[in-house]
Amino acid sequence: xxxxxxxxxxxxxxxxxxxxxxxxxxxxxxxxxxxxxxxxxxxxxxxxxxxxxxxxxxxxxxxxxxxxxxxxxxxxxxxxxxxxxxxxxxxxxxxxxxxxxxxxxxxxxxxxxxxxxxxxxxxxxxxxxxxxxxxxxxxxxxxxxxxxxxxxxxxxx
Length: 157
What we know:
The chain is of the alpha+beta class. Helices cover 52% and strands 21% of the residues.
């Protein structure tokens, strides 16, 4: 179990700092929730405490690991399926892992595809989400502002 003040990553929402742990009654059931403050878009997310293992919540990576993930952005793009539906599914699976290197790969590949041709609405939304997940961890691990982290990502790709 994590504590107030811990910095954690939710695979689909990104990294944030636990502001508090509170009990909520939802559908007649009382559960404990982490209230996570995300650095991007100044949003709070409530995550059930007992979902740590099933959802893939983890502590943020240290700065050295995050810098290695930024190096992934500089590498060659990985081959993606030409069928957008399969490509979308593959990218979603990578995001669900919560692995910073997989997230960086999705961000890199979609940014590069977008530079050549406009992404579909679904892929544009996926890129925005993946980028926010990556940026949030960079911001917390490297103690940067959102514009600084954004520039770091853009310069690397």
